[in-house]
Amino acid sequence: MKTMIPVRNDREKRRMLLATFSILPIFLYHFGFIIMPSIRTMYSSLTNWNGLGTRDFIGMDNYLELMQDPNFITAFGNNLKWMALFLTIPICIGIILGFALSGVTRGRLLFRAIYFLPYVISAAIAGKIFASFFNPYFGINVVLKAMGMDFLSRDWLSPGNALFSVAFVDMWHWWGFLLVLLLSALQQIDPMLYESATLEGAGEVQKLWHITLPCIKQTIIFIILITMVWSISTFEYVWVMTRGSPGSELLSTMLYKNAYMKYRAGYAGSIAVVQMFVSFLIFAGFGMLRKRLED
Amino acid sequence: MTLRRRLSSLTLIACLATVAALQILPLAAAFSNSFRTDKEIKKLPIGLPTRLNLDNYVKAWKIGGYSQAFANSVVVSVSTTAAIVACSLIAGFFLARVTSKFTHSMIIYFGVALSIPVFSFLVPVYYAFAELKLVNTLIGLILIFVATNLPFNILLARTYILGIPKELDEAATIDGCSTYQVLWSIICPISKPIITTIALIVFVSTWNEFTIANTFLQSPELKTAATRFVLFVGERGSDLSMVHTAAMVTILPIIVVFLLLQNYFIEGMTAGSIK
Is the ipTM beyond the 0.85 threshold? Predict the structure, then answer.
């Protein structure tokens, strides 16, 4: 027995070493491409870097400018509106249809596939298809007129409507994903729980409150978390459909314009840092919340 | 009672079917429009075609430069997919099987890395690539795609391999297999479903990706199908029959792949997200 232990430890040690050497290159690759540049972004936000050439350290100047930039205030407000929309509409649709679908056996997979389908369509293509339908002269306005619902037609991508129109398209692509997450959580609930609750005389509402909700709570918290974090840095649909025109400017579109069109990489960096900071706050908030719930 | 139940379940099915119809309507309309003329579409943007021929497709394929765009997309997506499958199996295997301080911190690292927004690193990478002459090259794009796709798929592979009984590894080790032989001859064959899932997720997401591809590839002949499509709409957006046909050309391969393998895709997305 005594001689066995060192041999085992030796083998364990070799395995650990092999694991370290196998994962290390992958880690370093990711670190080099993602983390190092992120640190560089933080540094460049303190400079007047234009992307190429030299950069001078200018301290907090970019941030001070940002605080007074009306464009930034509008963009940040639009991101918050976006977050409010995504925290309500797609999550509600996902929950309602998740419940409905979990009660169906025949055709469930077909419905799930159709609801989920927009999620696998590129934002570049979906955005452009919808943009053509939002054309005020050739788009759905024509259909509305033909149906005698002229009062509904408007200029969908005009400053007053653009944010909501784009959010609508992004939600069209997004809620199916939430549904799939919720559906899988609902299906993992042990049917025995419901049966024994019925035997004990629990009503439908009680079952929903005491069995269903606690069982899908983790999933809902996860969905709220990713929704909040992604709302701060959402980009593709807005860029494809409006390029962040007045009315639909977001932090990311403003950042993109500064980085690649106005050659103000340092200023763009300060916007990226704001995004990272807000994401960090959201994560920290959820971490604290979870701790409190567990205690 | 049974009649009432049947009626309510019929109502439920009808509601679900209505939502499904609305959800699919924009894509179905675009598909239908790919057989119509620009004039017809402008008169009524949602309608059935009057004749079925592939004229629009032939034209869109040619003027959209799709032979080239598809070749670029295939090169980028296949290379990224191959690299990610290999890396995530290796890393996922060791993260599932070896418990040490290092593997523990790596699990946390890749978990945190999942949520890094794209713009926190994109601008410095772009300008660094510009100096290295990697902007406007497919290899540059592949290098970034590999980095961005690593964390999710490593964790996905790890979760799956955790579910494979350890006894199988141990039996193979006693038979004299080295650790990498165990990975290759025991874990890989059992992990076929997750390999399919990872390959599918990476292939589809790189095929669809817009932000990074559009930033790093500027010349038309290097663009991937999705970004080439956006360029095409910019140039020929006034011809709606071309817009909708080109859209269909770009997404049909993905739709076919998805419909054939949707279970792998959806199960993978849920498993990888919730864990």
Answer: yes
